[in-house]
Amino acid sequence: MNQFATCPNGHRITITEVHLGKRVSCPICGDSFLVPEVIPEVQPVAASAAKPRALLSSAGISLRATEAKKAVLLTGRVFLGLGLVLVILSRGCEVVAARAVERAKSRLKLEQLVFDEKWDRQENDLERKLDAIRQKDKPDPNDALQIASLNEQLSQLRKDRSRASEAFRQTTLRDLQFAATQASYSHALNTYWHAVLYVFGSLLLAIGLMAVSGAAEGPERWVCLAAMVILMFSLYVFGLGWLPLPSLSLSN
């Protein structure tokens, strides 16, 4: 049975049983050496190296899994923050646009109220003076002149009010009506883009919550799962996210 022996220079040569305990020469370097009577069996190198390679491979796989988990967690957090910002921005823009419409309408009504109040106050003052003179128990000789003068002032005041009202409608009131109408149509046009932004933001928010809940551990994972359930039910089950925003209702 062939066996293997190593010369002093490290060359591995093949020997047989007849060479055991005898001096032989190395066919490679020519040096002679004594072959031991018993040659110990050499364990296969591949078997001993297999375990470290398996450990290194397992460690590499675990490291790659950890890095991938960190990347998913970071991406999920970015999506979560971006989606939250877009949702808040879309609803905020919708609120601002709705309030702009209400502001324009309120300003129109306020200017009309101020105009009417100004002229009504003057008419009421003249009418109170007339009533005070007519209700006297003992009228004076000058009361008739005062009544005539007050009636003339009242008549002139109403003419002035009619002219001022016409000018007010053609200038200030017309501009305010145009501004209110423009704000209303602008709000109607921008509502579409606000809704698109809201849908996109809610999708990013949902993706971020799913990614973070899958990669995170501990309380962060459970918080994200709870938030995702609330978000899904609010948007697509109960429809709370699609309800119109409350607006100020001013009576005419």
Task: Describe the protein.
The protein has 252 residues and is mostly helical. The protein has two domains: 3-37, no CATH class; 68-242. Helices cover 72% and strands 6% of the residues. The chain has four helices and four strands. The chain has helices at 45-134, 143-170, 172-215, 219-237; strands at 3-6, 12-15, 23-25, 32-34. The protein has a two-stranded antiparallel sheet with strand order 1-2. A two-stranded antiparallel ribbon has the order 3-4. Helix 1 (45-134) runs antiparallel to helix 2 and helix 2 (143-170) packs across helix 3. The longest helix is centred in the middle third of the chain and has 90 residues, at 45-134. The relative contact order is 0.11. The model is unreliable at 43-49 and 247-252 (pLDDT under 50).
Poorly predicted runs are 43-49, 247-252
- The overall pLDDT average reads 80
Strand content: 5-15%
Distance between the termini: 116 Å
Specify the structural class: mainly alpha
How many domains in all? 2
Instruction: Give a count of the beta strands, DSSP E runs of length 2 or more.
Output: 4
Enumerate how many helices there are, as a single number: 4
Please name the defining characteristics of this protein.
two-stranded antiparallel sheet; two-stranded antiparallel ribbon; 4 helices
